[in-house]
Amino acid sequence: MNDATKAWLKSVYKEYYFRGADQVDFPDRVESREFGYFPFGGGMVRHLSFKSKGEALAEILKQSPSSVYCSNARYEYPARPIEEKGWLGAELIFDIDATDIPTPCKKGHDLWYCEKCHASGKLPRPPKCTKCGGPAVEFHGKCEACLDAAKDHAMRVVRFLVDDFGVDRNVIRLYFSGNRGYHLHVFDGRFDLLDPQARGEIAEYVRGSGLPPNQTLASSLRRRPPSGPQGAGWTRRITGYVGTRRQDYGGTLQRLVSEAISSQRALVDSSVTTDIHRVFRLSGTLHGDTGMVKKRIESVESFDPQEDPVVLSDKPVKVRVEFYPKFRMKHKDFGPYPKPETIELPTYAAVSILTRGLGEVV
Ligand SMILES: [Zn+2]
Ligand SMILES: [Zn+2]
């Protein structure tokens, strides 16, 4: 990324923060949170703390960075190194990314490309470019199908929390990450002091890890066929699913059990839930790879991840694109750009190419 592109991106982000300061959605007790950011083209700056939202906003506007982060943890001394911060608790968090959910659409939009000759091909990525031997890197795209799958898995987490953990739906905040996924923050004091191991158990539970093998479950259901939901937790989920579908189901009981699990488990990233010192993208700030905003979602049904988080302008800008696959924003198709070319794009679309280092402003 050259200096002109860095400066242009920074000016675009600054304009958003200038207009959209009231969109930045801070958690409570700002003074106890650790903040961090990535400047365009630079390394991460962490261990920052601010006395108030106003002070944090002033710094965000001044830096207009590529990404802004805030801890889910609260600390006595948020600006000190991790071991001296004095951890006071952290909200329970779940991260769902479309990349981690197996969907057939990936074949169409995930690929590798060569940084040198711009050759590209289907994943898995070869160790080196098959054409010129240059460096081959992975590119993960997205589409309606995998964004819908991610949304579905996020709603599954909500159901686990409400039905199996007795969490009040109103204390669960759901956010679109600004790229390919969803974050869930649980503002329920019962979870705040849990250590990483206990958080990991919750994550594994919603993932459906550690259940007995499908064969074992099927044979116990065969002995006592359920007619509806029985027991609690996963038992209730599996007996409920099997009980209502068993009569008309054409396949084996084992297959039905496998369906019961795969249709209800939520493929959260456990490593995110267990990390109690992590910083997360701050809601209302722009994603460093897409220029889309991390957005709190009030109504899941009507939220449109292709449209609603696109907040940058459609002012046209000329860019030299090195390489970029086909993509879709605001329900418009762009690309593909298999070879270097100079084109004019709306700002919001140009940003998603430039932030990935695959083009420059001209
Ligand atoms: Zn090559
Ligand atoms: Zn997809």
Describe the fold and architecture.
With 362 residues, this protein is α+β, with helices and mostly antiparallel strands. The chain has ten helices and 18 strands. It has helices at 3-20, 53-63, 106-109, 144-165, 196-207, 214-223, 233-245, 253-262, 270-274, 347-354; strands at residues 35-38, 45-48, 67-71, 73-75, 87-90, 92-97, 110-114, 120-122, 136-140, 172-176, 181-186, 279-281, 295-296, 316-321, 327-329, 332-334, 341-346, 359-361. The strands form six sheets. The protein has a four-stranded antiparallel sheet, with no helix packed on it. A four-stranded antiparallel sheet has the order 6-11-10-13. The chain has a three-stranded antiparallel sheet with strand order 8-7-9. Strand 1 (35-38) and strand 2 form a beta hairpin. The protein is globular and about 70 Å long. 34% of the residues are buried. Bound molecules: zinc ion (2 copies). One zinc ion binds at residues 114, 116-117, 119, 129, 131-132, 134. The site of one zinc ion has 8 residues, from helix 3 and helix 4.
Label this structure with key terms.
single chain, alpha+beta, 4-stranded antiparallel beta sheet, globular, binds zinc ion
Architecture blueprint of SSEs:
Blueprint (H helix, E strand, L loop, with lengths): L2 H18 L14 E4 L6 E4 L4 H11 L3 E5 L1 E3 L11 E4 L1 E6 L8 H4 E5 L5 E3 L13 E5 L3 H22 L6 E5 L4 E6 L9 H12 L6 H10 L9 H13 L7 H10 L7 H5 L4 E3 L13 E2 L19 E6 L5 E3 L2 E3 L6 E6 H8 L4 E3 L1
Antiparallel strand pairs: 1-2, 1-3, 3-12, 4-5, 6-11, 7-8, 7-9, 10-11, 10-13, 14-17, 14-18, 15-16
Helix pairs in contact: 1-2, 6-8, 7-8
The structure holds zinc ion (ZN) (2 copies).
